[in-house]
Amino acid sequence: MAARKTTPKPNVSSEELTQFYRDMLLIRRFEEKAGQLYGMGLIGGFCHLYIGQEAVVVGLEAAAEDGDKRITSYRDHGHMLACGMDPNGVMAELTGREGGYSKGKGGSMHMFSKEKHFYGGHGIVGAQVPLGAGLAFSDKYRDNGRVTFTYFGDGAANQGQVYETFNMAALWKLPVVFVIENNQYAMGTAQQRSTSTPDLHTRGEAFGIPGEVVDGMDVLAVKVAGKTAVGHCRAGKGPYILEIKTYRYRGHSMSDPAKYRTREEVQKMREERDPIEHVRIMLIEGKHASEDDLKAIDKEIKAVVNASAEFAKESPEPALEELWTDIYAEAT
Amino acid sequence: MATEILMPALSPTMEEGTLAKWLVKEGDTVSSGDIIAEIETDKATMEFEAVDEGILGRILIAEGTEGVKVNTPIAMLVEEGEDAASATVDSAQSQQPAPADKTLTSESAPAAAKTHPEPDLIPDWPEGTELRQQTVREALRDAMAEEMRRDGEVFLMGEEVAEYQGAYKISQGLLDEFGSKRVIDTPITEHGFTGIAVGSAFGGLRPIVEFMTFNFAMQAIDQIINSAAKTLYMSGGQMGCPIVFRGPNGAAARVGAQHSQDYAAWYAHIPGLKVVMPYSASDAKGLLKSAIRDPNPVIFLENEILYGRSFDVPKLDDFTVPFGKARIWREGSDVTIVSFGIGMSYALEAAEKLAEDGIDAEVIDLRTLRPMDTATVIASVQKTNRCVTVEEGFPVGAIGNHISAVLMQEAFDWLDAPVINCTGKDVPMPYAANLERHALLTTEEVIDAVRKVTYR
């Protein structure tokens, strides 16, 4: 099956465009704040920021319906905010506090929300791919019309279990959208140094899975592609691959000296392709919003993020008894 | 109101660093995302970005300064028109470092068991229950069929479980009764199908995954341990994983090193898993039914050689055996022999031969390794004062080692001899028939161990 290019149609209302701006800005500001709290020692361990990739999750959430599931890797803060999880709970998990989504026991890489159908937050590169297909398997078993968005990176796209999963997902026609967030670097290894063929959207061809490449710095293009993919899955045609070309501005994790790319490369992306700036210009030029309107949104988002940081600092550390809970579920 | 810029922690282990270079000077305007300094950590030189906007009022730490502690103010950011020298720091923005870890006190650790819990001596079925002879193979199939009839969300997947009727014929007849939606042949891709099964359990289904043998589960062990066993904890109790991983484990006969390993100790090591290793057909049935109903991931270790053996199985509509309850197969007063799975064959045979020489052995089948019924073992050793453990697995980090440690800590004063662990030999499994016999455990070795601990 040949890869198809989509032409994004800017068929979008003022309200939706403004919502995209708001949702992406929330992720951007939240991540900046997380980076700051890390620097202050309030967040420990690994902390992988999503800055630069915001249009991917915001565009795909716009293509999702109630009850659809999502699962991703350790670079997961953006996914959680985009599907409506509470910034306070996410930030408090980053600081390892009782008010966090996992009561402080999961950390940056391991958060979940049954309510929002967010299934983690997984720390082993590629492991979430069969898990996501398994979530889709449960929906197909129940014949409930739900779709699972399974996110992974260009690095994970080389893992063996991904191809085992492609095979079974296609064989069993599982309703799963494989979202390859291609930010061009697997930790510090550029894609051309790790990957024999660069077109990751064609990786499903051997299994009969259609795929397309999407401009991940354009939230509207992402939404259009997401709708196509979801429609394919809901029609019972099995999995679909979206290779979404994106870029992370920050390091792989906080302790990344970023010697594998030039400062100019990052700067050029920020200046020319920033996904939030892209929507900001559309809003202003299309007269959907005034500078003052956007300033008000900025202020509002800043307040939400600052409140989440305050919550995350004030929430107490988990009680020591928590060490011994949640190891086994009780029979019901 | 000025904002302090603090020395950042730029790696999980960084406590201090060198402020290598300032890339901005006093009076410069900085905005969020600008690189303002280079900082050397314990690992590398990192660029440090500004988070807040403002004018760099004052540099507090000169470039080239070494050993700057994390969270030390290194510069002041002021607003336009503000005088850096007289600027006051907004205390709300001058954040405090994270509170120090509270150290775990001895009170909060689980109290060491000073008093021993009473063993549960209730028999598995009421006296007078009608019994029938059944093989372990039939018992396992009946357990799955009964649970699949009971709960529509239970399904079986694995290599050759459906049309082939099971590589070892455990799933015989299940495809006919339940159809291909619930009895699913997989490609030979353990890593992938295990991950899919775990994902389906996160989605609320109750999968039974058959591994053709547990040797092949090593391909999938990341999904079993990192995904299935740990997610409940990592999610603060939100996301459970009700799943059973089952199949033959340990040596069969003459199949060489890669197909002959006992994984009991590997899985028993992992918090979040439950581990079952039955010997008899009644236990195979009752424990597998409990495993399928359990809301946690259960490792169910079978044995190819035991599949064809027959045992009494109670004729009951819904017969289950609880986890964490050992079974005393033979009461005795001179020594306690503790085993599980196929190890029980050697233990029972040794006990019979020892009885001919007047040594009266008590034989305990642990049945589940996690949770483990140490209470029954301790109570027995308090009576016999001697203990031998029996398993086919490798000797280093064996289940027997753990039992020895428990007895040392909790029944030291009752022991009249060191505990001896009978295990497989510390070698990969050889193919030659004579070598294989020696690599495995022998009944003679168990008898010798009992003679050593009883000094007879």
UniProtKB/TrEMBL annotation, chain A:
SUPFAM superfamilies referenced in this protein's UniProt entry, alphabetically: Thiamin diphosphate-binding fold (THDP-binding)
Keyword Oxidoreductase among record annotations: yes
Residue ranges of domain Dehydrogenase E1 component in the record: 23-320
Keywords (A to Z) from UniProt: Oxidoreductase, Pyruvate, Thiamine pyrophosphate
One Pfam family in the UniProt entry: E1_dh
GO molecular function, one term: pyruvate dehydrogenase (acetyl-transferring) activity
Cofactors required: thiamine diphosphate
Domain of life: Bacteria
GO BP field: pyruvate decarboxylation to acetyl-CoA
Summary of the function given for this chain in its UniProt record: The pyruvate dehydrogenase complex catalyzes the overall conversion of pyruvate to acetyl-CoA and CO(2). It contains multiple copies of three enzymatic components: pyruvate dehydrogenase (E1), dihydrolipoamide acetyltransferase (E2) and lipoamide dehydrogenase (E3).
Quaternary structure (record): Heterodimer of an alpha and a beta chain.
Entry protein name: Pyruvate dehydrogenase E1 component subunit alpha
Originating species: Primorskyibacter sedentarius
Phylogenetic classification of the source organism: Bacteria, Pseudomonadati, Pseudomonadota, Alphaproteobacteria, Rhodobacterales
From TrEMBL, chain B:
Pfam families linked: Biotin_lipoyl (PF00364), Transket_pyr (PF02779), Transketolase_C (PF02780)
Enzyme Commission number: 1.2.4.1
Domain Lipoyl-binding residue range list: 2-78
Cofactor(s) the protein needs: (R)-lipoate; thiamine diphosphate
Cited CDD domains: lipoyl_domain, TPP_PYR_E1-PDHc-beta_like
Keywords: Lipoyl, Oxidoreductase, Pyruvate, Thiamine pyrophosphate
A GO molecular-function annotation: pyruvate dehydrogenase (acetyl-transferring) activity
GO biological process: pyruvate decarboxylation to acetyl-CoA
PROSITE patterns, per database record: BIOTINYL_LIPOYL (PS50968), LIPOYL (PS00189)
InterPro entries reported for this sequence: 2-oxoA_DH_lipoyl-BS, Biotin_lipoyl, PDHB_mito-type, Single_hybrid_motif, THDP-binding, Transketo_C/PFOR_II, Transketolase-like_Pyr-bd, Transketolase_C
Positions of the UniProt region annotated as Disordered: 85-128
Biased composition range(s): Polar residues: 88-108
Reactions performed catalytically: N(6)-[(R)-lipoyl]-L-lysyl-[protein] + pyruvate + H(+) = N(6)-[(R)-S(8)-acetyldihydrolipoyl]-L-lysyl-[protein] + CO2
Recorded superkingdom: Bacteria
Keyword Oxidoreductase in record: yes
Statement: the UniProt record of this protein carries the keyword Transmembrane helix: no
Enzyme class: oxidoreductase
Record text on subunit structure and interactions: Heterodimer of an alpha and a beta chain.
Described function: The pyruvate dehydrogenase complex catalyzes the overall conversion of pyruvate to acetyl-CoA and CO(2). It contains multiple copies of three enzymatic components: pyruvate dehydrogenase (E1), dihydrolipoamide acetyltransferase (E2) and lipoamide dehydrogenase (E3).
Protein name stated in the entry: Pyruvate dehydrogenase E1 component subunit beta
Organism of origin: Primorskyibacter sedentarius
Source organism phylogeny: Bacteria, Pseudomonadati, Pseudomonadota, Alphaproteobacteria, Rhodobacterales
